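Continuing from the previous page...

OK, I double-checked the sequence for SET domain-containing protein against my notes and this is the correct one:
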Amino acid sequence: MTKASLVPPITRKYEVVDKYLIVADEEEVEKKMRVALPDDYNEKLLAQKSGMEEMEIPEVKEYKPRKLLGVEVLEQEVYGIDPYTHNLLLDSMPEESDWDPTEKHNFIEELLLRTLNKQVRHFTGSGNTPMVYPLRPAMRNRPEDNYVAYRKGLGVVCNKEEGFDQNDFVVEFLGEVYPAWKWFEKEDGIKSLQKNNQDPAPEFYNIYLERPKGDRDGYDLVVVDAMHKANYASRICHSCRPNCQSKVTAVDGRYQIGIYTVRPIAYGEEITFDYHSVTESKEEYEASVCLCGNQVCRGSYLNLSGEGSFEKILKEYHGLLDRHKLMLEACEANSVSQEDYIELGKAGLGTCLLAGLPDWLVAYSAHLVRFMNFERKKLPDEILKFNLEEKRKYFSDINIESEKSEAEVQAEGVSNGRLQNLAITLDKVRYVMRCVFGDPKEAPPPLEKLSGEGLVSVLWNGEGSLVEELVLSMAPHMEADQLNILKSKILSHNPSGSDNIQKELRKSLLWLRDELRSLPCSHKCRHDAAADLIHIYAYTKCFFKVRVWVQDCELPPVYISPLDLGPNYVEKMGSGFQEYCKTYGENYCLGQLIYWYIPTTADPDNRLLRASKGCLSLPDVSSFYTKSQKPLRENVYSSRTTRFMLTRMEKQPQRPWPKDRIWVFKSNPKFFGSPMLDTVLNKCPLDREMIHWLKTRPNVFQGT
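Thanks. Re-ran it with the corrected sequence; updated structure tokens here:
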């Protein structure tokens, strides 16, 4: 819910519902919401209460009716203050006051804000609610316009004179229930329909309903969206120090999101909970100003993901090539080991999420869980180091033990987020596999290692092979007789049928390298540069191809309202819904699985293609044969180019090669492989002989 002071809140109207409404995949969603208590539930419950059980088990609650709207709770206009105003109010309190700091904060957070929201109640439904409301502290003579509260929109307040007790049930968070794949189709549609990236962020009213890891069938999730169909729970505002919490509970054999009090709530007090929402957009984070008015206010009701120390282990140990290594291992094995099942079980993943998936995908998931466990152990130290460096800029007195504890909490939050992202990824991929194969279990491994004649075919003698494309690129720059002689030599060096194809193929490629270097070069045909590339191919040990499951796949539409798009679209588009059809590219599933930790990417296959250039997919040999008379300086293959290439290979092996250089990359490569991938697969440095030759071979073209 957008509560930024600069963004006028929209008092949206929703259709009131009294149960969850499933949008798609009803049978699957019902399964995800169904409670399956462990056989030893009572023993685990006792162990959890005594601190002996680490895995979260279902919290079973008896059914209780929600608080009555209009009787026990009210929907009304609510106001809040930002951290700046909170500090102004503190500063304006009389110096002679005998209040301690805690009492001063409590005065602002409890008495002042509660009184304020009683005063503004009459604005509800009036149509003329002011965006700011002046506060008039009589404690110091300060400019009055500094002291203002900002409108948050409609919120929910306690209307029961005796208030609510601690651990009291308030209301369940109801709405439309989406399987993850359908929700992210809608999110992709929203991004595609937004015309201006500078528009204010749309309001959001969605929460993940996550199955506890300790459920007998394991962890999974669905999305509950209260934008259009909801109850008053969707009006409850965020607070960094809330009086309620949202949690998943098991009621009558079904999981629901319930809002429960965490402390007593007084009459007239606004009901709040912590959204725990995350965004990847720094702009959205900074625009989402929190108005909870609490001493511990974080300043934004969103948390920013992908920042600093949170991503350090991921970037260092789980790069693009590392993830391909895990995928290749899973595809080669195409089976699930007992150890895999144990690792998945410890992470809380069971039949609810994994049943019906092909073995290679379950094995890949186990590899990802192992990385998550590794990251969880390493991350607290990185977070602690980062936090201490930041705080020492402003504070001299730091409680190290407190900081260690906070780092552990943050690391656990990152770990939970990773598991959430894996569940979303598997749901999206399962859906596409179901559309393509009917039964997802029929989906074959997406990667296939090349060896033997298959390897010779893509590099030497097959249609569209590396050597065939080299000859085609050279043809416009050579006399026909000279080209025919070269073709005959290439044919005589065909490694097919040899006892050791890998060895003979390398010998043939190195012969071709030397043959190219013996040919005269010009600005338009850089045989010497092509020779360098052939040299790199010769020293690459592992090549693989991607199995194409299906051509672009377009599926039934999702419907998006102007409210889904953001405040500026309501007036522009009226109340009509927009139709959006998601198209899944032929390598969508592979891209999503490689980028499993970023489920918000609309086209992960294109992202993967861009990231693969150079480090995983070597340049096209046509890069060095041009039509222009003399290319621009930055597109000339020179010693500077070679130095850059070697630096990237040695120092930044998992980064893509830049597109503003001479290299050209295929938009749809037939195969992949690089010496940098070899280093990850074999846990060894780059081949010294390969690097030495590139660094010491003499230049044969002096035109640069």
